[in-house]
Amino acid sequence: MTSSEKRGWATVTRFSLVVIACLFSALGYAQSWEELSDQQRKVLAPYQSRWDGFTEAERARYARGAERWARLGRQQRAQLRQRFDRWQALPESSRRELMKRFERFQQLSPEDQRRLRAKQREFRQLSPDQQRQLRQRYERARQNRRAWPSDELQIRRQQNRRQAPTVGPRNHQRNGRAPATRNSDR
User: Fold this and answer.
1) Is 76 helix (H, G, I), strand (E, B) or coil?
2) SS (H, E, C) the chain
3) Which of 37, 28, 32, 21 is CA-nearest to residue 54?
4) 110 pLDDT exceeds 90?
5) What angle do CA 26, 30, 34 make, to 5 degrees?
6) Stated pTM of the model
7) Which ranges of 107-181 would DSSP assign to H, the alpha helix?
8) Is 172:178 a contact under the CB 8 Å cutoff?
């Protein structure tokens, strides 16, 4: 294949990718209120007056959410409403902290996410008393970590290592004298 043919294929490939991206973005993003399905418009009715002010990404997110909402059963909707009401009742600082935690979770590897979800399921299986005890242990450990700034904590660890009794060849260095041996004790 000649270099001009390679460039031609590269151009066709790039053009194809652009066309595919445009098609998928058109499917994923509702550009106008009228492009939404009837179900989506019904769910998103409170946002109709503000719809044109949303970014494309926001419109897409709301459209997908409305689509999922329309597929939910009555009980699932009630549970989601309760969760949303609890979320709305949280102070802004708590919501920000939870969002940060979620972002950190999203950055975990899929394996770590699975492991964390399994631990959460285990925790939910515990009795309320066991959950309370575990939370208290966690809080105490967390407070102990906060009590020492990181530099002081490292210094403290080094001091603890120095104070630990030594075993083996170092023992003969006590007081600058060699240890007594059985032969010399006789």
Assistant:
1) helix
2) CCHHHHHHHHHHHHHHHHHHHHHHHHHHCCCCHHHCCHHHHHHHHHHHHHHHHCCHHHHHHHHHHHHHHHHCCHHHHHHHHHHHHHHHHCCHHHHHHHHHHHHHHHCCCHHHHHHHHHHHHHHHHCCHHHHHHHHHHHHHHHHHHHHCCHHHHHHHHHHHHHHCCCCCHHHHHHHHCCCCCHHHHC
3) 32
4) yes
5) 120
6) 0.46
7) 110-125, 128-147, 150-163
8) yes
Residues 109 and 117 sit within 8 Å (Cβ to Cβ): no
Is the CB of residue 63 less than 8 Å from the CB of residue 40?
yes
**pLDDT score of 145:** 75
Query: Residues 10-47: pLDDT tens digits?
Result: 554 554 444 454 444 444 555 788 888 888 888 899 98
Residues 132, 135: Cα–Cα separation, whole Å: 5
Residues 6+ apart with CB under 8 A from 71: none
What is the 8-class DSSP label of residue 66? H
